[in-house]
Amino acid sequence: MPVRFLLDGEVVELDAVDPTATVLDHLRYTMRRTGTKEGCAEGDCGACTVLVGALEGEGVAWRAVNSCIQFLPMLDGKAVMTVESLKNDTGTLNALQETMACNGSSQCGFCTPGFVMSLHGRTIGARGCDLPVEEVIAGNLCRCTGYGPIIEAGEGAGSCEQDDTRVIAALKALEGSASGEWRGRRWFAPRTCDELAVLLAEHPDARLVAGATDVGLWVTKGLRDLGTVIFLGGIAELAAIEESDDALTLGAGVRYADAHAAMARLHPDLGELVRRIGGLQVRNAGTIGGNIANGSPIGDGPPALIALGAELTLRSMAGRRTMALEDYFLAYGKQDRQPGEFVESVRIPRPPADAVILISKLSRRFDSDISAVCGAFALRVEDGVIEEARAAFGGMAATPKRAGTCEAALIGQPFAEATFTAAAEALKADFEPLTDVRGSSAYRVEAAANLLRRLWLRSQGVATSVLEAVDG
Amino acid sequence: MAERDPAWKVLPKPSHPHDSARLHVAGEARYADDLTEPADMLHLAFGQSSEARARIVSMDLSEVRASPGVVAVYTAADIPGANDVSPVAGDDRLLADGEVITHGQAVFLVAATSQRAARIAARLGRIAYEPLPAALTVAEAQAAGSHIEPAQRMARGDAPAALDAAPHRLSGRFAMGGQDHFYLEGQVSVATPGEDGQVHVLCSTQHPSEVQHLVAHMLHVSSADVTVEVRRMGGAFGGKETQAALFAAAAALVASKTGRPAKFRVDRDDDMVMTGKRHPFDVAYEVGFDDAGRLLGLSLHLASACGATVDLSPAINDRAMFHSDNCYFLPDVEVISERLKTNTVSATAFRGFGGPQGMLAIERVIDDVAMALGRDPLDVRVLNLYGPGRETTPYAMTVADNVAPQIIARLRTTSRYDERAKAIEAFNAANPVLKKGIALTPVKFGISFTTTHLNQAGALIHVYADGSIQVNHGGTEMGQGLYTKVARVVADVFAVPMEIIRITATRTDKVPNTSATAASSGADLNGMAAHNAAMTIRDRLTDFLARTYSLEESEVHFTPGGVIVGAETLDFAQVARKAHIGRVSLSSTGYYATPGIEYDRSVFRGRPFYYFAYGAAVSEVVIDTLTGEHKVLAVDIIHDVGRSLNPVIDKGQIEGGFIQGQGWLTTEELVWDAKGRLLTHSPATYKIPTASDRPAHFTVTLWDGENVEPTINRSKAVGEPPFMLAISVFSALNRAVAATVPGKRALPQLDAPCTPERILKAIAAFSA
């Protein structure tokens, strides 16, 4: 079955598709739309940013994504907007482009189309754009300008309602494909969890692809052949967000950008962590479940979710299985996922209003970076005594991991400075982190311990974040 | 032609947007990879060395050749001419010959029907190595006595005696890291074979002539057989001055041998591994000073890791020496510059070209002196500035145009430096975790290639009979707005609107034997060459019109309203038509060589620079003493561009240069492992500043002045100098760390880049 998507009002139909051909390569080298650029081919520079629209409810949800690590079948049934789409009918630049052309927003110009697309997304109300301009474009790198004119152009652009009536009609007529085959390589795009369970039973070795923010690099950098691929993006059930008084339940396919508001409501630190998990293009593609399922020791979601006591639900033909999230991570690269199983959802209990929580990500750069250390703490304090304590870390071990010795040093102790000093010392017995490109073992140990001090001082009203000092 | 002062005569003060801005925002500006690929195009990839240094024992490329899509595989033995892609020393191999000297070095070359096929095949080579001892760092190379050339010495007076006599004396050392250029458009070259052995290379390079000459030597053809063209680069920053040649030569080799067009579009990670970066430096110093902080004697030792080959390292390290005074008079001084040969990718040109490293060294010395005396570092800076009776550099050049004192004084006032420094003291006293710091540092940057013969440029201008004008010159466009500036110069000569001017791609068949567009010199040199070409044509037109209308030449005027010829006014197109019919040549070359510069490298004496560009910045930062995280809060800049050729473009260079400098000193860390492998070879691990790293408060003011030298429009070069304004961030971070131990009279031991880890380490060491 062909892959079909909408581009500038026209349906593009591709009969035979390499399931791991990237959207960027197709745009540039097949369709000759060379305005979209390759800067890194790994989703870190934003030069390849395009907007992808999907029917959601009565309208179209547009999202800025990195086309360099989106695979062509992921576009099936969607609409695409590239920089070439933006000119007015008369062939003139749109208002945002006009401003950027005049105010010095471009120097070498190579990153410019990506910035134009990110900012255009903001003007038309694309997902995840209700943030200050510099945060919307934090996933777009510019090496020339210093960003000033670009931010200025973005701030001046305001919002501009886009009439999506024709897109909606056209997308409704585009029934998505369920599968395809290309040179012996098969791919599937199931619509329900039941279908997925059946497919996984039939193809236990199939590679599951949700947002492709990680797997995309296996192809563009690892030059790997992924074999049979099952794309998860079309399964509506996996994209469900359920917010109740006692928990937030996120389907495995919920994109970080879509989960942001609900997670921020759970706790502001969690919202800030999600904001910093990657650039907007990455948050618009990367999923909660993908971040868990790949088992990365430096994935930012798991430590925070473990500290908050999250439960993971796995599903297969045999039914469902629920476990504490920390139990899912067995060893480096090894998770408790049986053949035929997939991650279905994660349930995060809503912490009580008086819970003491700190979630901190330490990295070289605040935005679009990977943690050296990610620490998360959730304490329940009663009558000045710490009754419960959960502490979990990323970047400190081969898996996201709880700090048992540290927790033991907290539980039953008075909520007082000395307790945190002792717990920080105890933490050193919990981990023997590696020295790697993101930090030395010594730094990780010291910084992780200092997060306990940060927790204590913050609870006492002391300013502890340089990001909060910006206006001070 | 009479000597003219080429300042804007006719057209209003310029601030045209970048000539390609409208194409950039529309996605219509074409870069080398954007041109339609011919059906028979081949795509290339290198098989790379897995060793830092080794003898190649054997090479089995059978699996490479058998890989799907592979059309050809070449090794050093297949190169018809010189196996060399180096700028000067002849020591950079296109393909390794017998031994490898860095990890990632090109060993063999694969040509395939797609980029992916070439990259997959390139990983299938089976190469047996016999590892040899490798030196990977400054210290290891020093221990091994491994240098690319002998250490250089620049001295004045008797530094040891001055140190002995000084009331105070201290010594220190610190290290600063290198920097990846991270141009957004990676290295790319497209070679198309022509008839009779000729080849055309479309190349993203700052140095088309050098690529042309290297390709010719490599193919064993003449320079006349090779044409190199570049319309624009997607960023360069020095990283495409010499580093483009490797990929251009590979593409030309394949095109020549197969007769098919060949494109080398380099994967980002391969690009970061295989191309040179800014030199990391280890600095040691001994300084003698008086009670007030005036420097009396300085012994400065600069040691850089140059990588495995010479590249441009001699000139880069020379420039580090020339800038180790910055704005300060050093009465008795000795600078020793050691150039270490390491088995890492050869370090190369990068915005500032050694200047930032030399300047950071002296600024740290000043901070050290100030902190030791418990004085505000700005007061110590001011005390040591060049001034009357103290205006000769250690290399015996007079600082004739010194506006640094005025710029500093103005910025001190406008930024409310002293008031803020007090407020920061109060903040630090009240905050146990967060500490702020502020610093104001100046810049004095010498303009000219220190290799004197490079200070020349050519241009070619055609006026067509319809009155349209094509402008061409040897400078390349990498985003800095050079084409726009030069076009404006030409428009001004003819008093025509910018729309009349068609800017054309830089090509070696239009203007030959050009220098790299580098050393911030692009507009100075090419602007003047284009001005001279345009003046030649205008003089011919003036002469022709005067003859035709029987007037004096003084009665012919080129004005925005048209060409006034006595009582008549003609539009420019009419003049062009009449001149063509009157058999006047409407095409001319133009040439310019910077006057007045000469220096003797054997003694480091003379006038290497035509003039200096100045600036100053004040930066305020905050650090988190628990995690080492930091944020640059506020930056104010005053910068001197002479009389600006284009204020919008110049401000863009200043802002962009500053942020790039901030990245060098804060987030951009290059990490190599013990085997000499670069671990930070992608934007996932190598972190240039992003939009949210730009300080929330950021102001740039152009200094209202003009160049004392008769440069084009009395402007000053702007490409590199602003980069070094970011030294204020480093200095401010040091003060913030120092604030963790109030009253301690010492400078923290903080190396650059100031990552959270380094800041935390410096805090611990400072309170120990």
TrEMBL record, chain A:
Segments forming a coiled coil: none
Keywords: FAD, Flavoprotein, Iron, Metal-binding, Oxidoreductase
Pfam (any one): CO_deh_flav_C
Keyword Iron in record: yes
Database matches in SUPFAM superfamilies: 2Fe-2S ferredoxin-like, CO dehydrogenase flavoprotein C-terminal domain-like, CO dehydrogenase ISP C-domain like, FAD-binding/transporter-associated domain-like
SMART domains in alphabetical order: CO_deh_flav_C (SM01092)
Span of domain FAD-binding PCMH-type: 180-353
2Fe-2S ferredoxin-type domain ranges (all copies): 1-86
Keyword Flavoprotein set for record: yes
Gene Ontology MF: a single term: 2 iron, 2 sulfur cluster binding
NCBIfam families: xanthine_xdhA (TIGR02963)
Protein's name in the database: Xanthine dehydrogenase small subunit
Native species: Novosphingobium resinovorum
Taxonomic lineage of the native organism: Bacteria, Pseudomonadati, Pseudomonadota, Alphaproteobacteria, Sphingomonadales
UniProtKB/TrEMBL annotation, chain B:
InterPro entries the record matches: Ald_Oxase/Xan_DH_a/b (IPR000674), Ald_Oxase/Xan_DH_a/b_sf (IPR036856), Ald_Oxase/xanthine_DH-like (IPR016208), AldOxase/xan_DH_MoCoBD1 (IPR008274), AldOxase/xan_DH_MoCoBD2 (IPR046867), AldOxase/xan_DH_Mopterin-bd_sf (IPR037165), Xanthine_DH_Mopterin-bd_su (IPR014309)
Origin superkingdom: Bacteria
Residues annotated as domain Aldehyde oxidase/xanthine dehydrogenase a/b hammerhead: 26-133
GO molecular function list: 2 iron, 2 sulfur cluster binding; iron ion binding; molybdenum ion binding; oxidoreductase activity
Keywords tagged on the record: 2Fe-2S, Iron, Iron-sulfur, Metal-binding, Molybdenum, Oxidoreductase
Cofactor(s) the record lists: Mo-molybdopterin; FAD; Mo-molybdopterin cytosine dinucleotide; [2Fe-2S] cluster
Residue ranges, annotated region (Disordered): 1-20
One Pfam family named in its UniProt record: MoCoBD_2
PANTHER family named among the record's database cross-references: ALDEHYDE OXIDASE 1-RELATED, XANTHINE DEHYDROGENASE
Family classification: Belongs to the xanthine dehydrogenase family.
The protein, known as: Xanthine dehydrogenase molybdopterin binding subunit
